[in-house]
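Researcher: Here's a chain I'd like modeled. Treat it as a single chain, no partners, no ligands.
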Amino acid sequence: MTSNPLIDLHDRGDFTDIDGDYILNGLTAAILVVDDNFLILKINSAAEDFFRTSVGNLLDHGLDTLLPADSPLFVLIAQVRAEQQAVSEYDVTIETPRIGQHFVNIHAAPVVECPGVVVLSLHSRSVAEKIDRQLSHRGAARSVSAMASLLAHEVKNPLSGIRGAAQLLEETVSVEDQSLTRLIRDEVDRICDLVDHMGMFSDDAPVRRDAVNIHQVLDHVLQISKNGFGRHTRFVANFDPSLPAVRGDRDQLVQVFLNLVKNAVEASPDEAGEVVMETSYRHGVRFAAPGTHERVHLPLAISVTDSGSGISEDIRPHLFEPFVTSKAHGSGLGLSLVAKIIGDHGGVIECESLSQRTTFRIMLPMCTDGESAGEAMMDEPSEAGP
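Model: Modeled as a single isolated chain. Structure tokens:
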């Protein structure tokens, strides 16, 4: 019988070191363990590099000797201790005279067996990534908003003249030719409907907000998909039934997930294609609000994953920009509209693409205690600056 190599290592007494400092020092994220007095109990090599000092100058020293008192890291640690659960914050700025300015994602968790002890994991982000995360979707939305305004002004006005002329001609032409004038009117009406549809990109329209059960939205999308474009695709739904309501527009959310599911079906193989939809509640996940210093809580996570070949690297940075598509006959407006709607709902959308899997993940705010499913309100758009 072949022996287990890990058991052999353990029997030789070699596994103790591998299970401790070797593993921590092999991680690229900066790891710190602090006690209830903010003393640093343990760090790894990445933390030495992050703070630009040696382990001797960090161990048994206070975290407050490295960071200013108003550092968001202390607020995060206090929250972990108060709630006794893991908390994550994204796009946090850590700044000191020694290390300069760093943009990081922070994950913090309590050590249940040791009251007051918290484990911190700091993942560095570049300045470019921070700026891109906050501005890319807003830039895409503004580009399409400008295009929508142009269409409304420059296209609908002459269309009304064409329709009026067709109506006048219909009174003078023969009965046989009236079918042609009706065709002109119908096609003009269809173009106007398309332009009105583009108006969803506009920043000027008020947005309706209700308490929406996200699972009713997803069930509706699945029903449409299974009976239409996805009838040959296997759908897997992993839903958390305890999710609270989302504050949003039900029809727009249906449009968002119908678009994502349709893309996932088209990206999956024709035979044995699979699309997985998941929902979860992510405690303590907060993001920097674009254009402000506020941090928003986005605990509701909804993901759509396909089994396709992935998205090419040259398209990924521009995925949510208008007219960018990998489809032979695609318009490139679907994901731009998705990004616009999710941004209007105060949420964020992310994409992770591997060789055999692509996941679009949306994080949304939940309704506050004062809102119920029967309450509706309108968010008037803010006035655009010059």
